[in-house]
Design brief:
alpha/beta; six-stranded mixed sheet; four-stranded parallel sheet
């Protein structure tokens, strides 16, 4: 690491990756902004891998910095054989010290740099777990050099949301309701009864749902915003099919489609947009590629 940058550290929180809270995400965004305002030329965030992609995307929504922000983690601890901690940390520092990767938030893992908008955890324990279905990495690295695969950029074309969110209490509960064989309206109805702020529906294919769920969405969209994502790991949601649960019918009901965002990231975007009190048009802009 010392070969690439002079590094100072700050501990924002100590949470397992599978139990990260909104207050941790917002505090990380504040810490990154503070570091850059104090003169840092790049920021590295270390994070557990389970929700690393969620946090990276949230940071892309919350900030718009003139310095690279690079999130990294590891699949094997330092006390395990062949730990990937040293390599991933060194890779993240190299990327954060390279002004080609600003603005925007990226994820450094296994000799690749991925855009925060696109990256997902693709395997439960493989060292190459971070992948970007449908797009691939932004850059690849060797010991001595790096190669841009595509142009780095911020993943959303909206103003940063951090200034509009006072604190974690502003972030509402946004559940994900899944469609599939035999799915009815029960899960959506229970979510609405619980008083959620919005709902993400993970449809099948291009963003279709069962007829029963589609009918329930038609009623629910009058009271809460509903975003429809697709189940496939790559490709957009598009209104093609009719019938009660088809995406054409859902579009007529007034849902927002998640585009190429998976349900997990659609949930992050919807929750933060509601916390920032965005209107419907601005919320839709979050789901359009920058």
């Amino acid at each position: 690491v010392a070969d690439h940058a002079r590094v100072t550290t700050r501990e924002v929180c100590s949470q397992p990756g599978f139990d990260v809270r909104w207050r941790d995400v917002l505090a990380t965004a504040t810490a990154a902004r503070d570091a850059v305002s104090e003169g840092a030329e790049g920021v590295v965030v270390t994070h557990g891998t389970d929700t690393l992609a969620d946090t990276a995307f949230a940071l892309d929504l919350l900030t718009d910095l003139d310095a690279p922000v690079v999130v990294t983690g590891a699949q094997r601890r330092l006390d395990e054989p062949s730990s990937d901690v040293p390599a991933n940390l060194a890779l993240a520092v190299r990327a954060a010290a390279d002004d080609r990767f600003a603005p925007g938030v990226h994820v450094a893992f296994d000799d690749e740099l991925h855009a925060a908008r696109d990256v997902v955890k693709g395997h439960s324990n493989a060292l190459s777990t971070m992948t970007s279905p449908g797009t691939g990495p932004v850059a690849t690295f060797t010991r001595a050099a790096s190669r841009l695969v595509r142009t780095p950029k911020r993943g959303v074309a909206v103003d940063p949301l951090a200034d509009a969110i006072e604190g974690p209490a502003d972030v509402p509960e946004v559940p994900v309701v899944h469609s599939g064989t035999g799915v009815g309206a029960g899960a959506l109805e229970r979510a609405l009864d619980a008083g959620v702020g919005g709902v993400v529906v993970e449809g099948t294919g291009l963003g279709n749902v069962t007829g029963a769920l589609g009918d329930a969405i038609g009623e629910a969209v009058e009271s809460v915003p509903i975003v429809v994502a697709g189940r496939p790991p790559a490709g957009p949601t598009e209104p093609v099919y009719g019938t009660p649960g088809g995406a054409v019918t859902l579009a007529d009901h007034g849902v927002t489609f998640a585009g190429d965002l998976p349900a997990a990231k659609a949930r992050v975007a919807l929750a933060l947009s509601l916390a920032a009190d965005l209107d419907g048009e601005a919320i839709e802009a979050l789901f359009a590629p920058a």
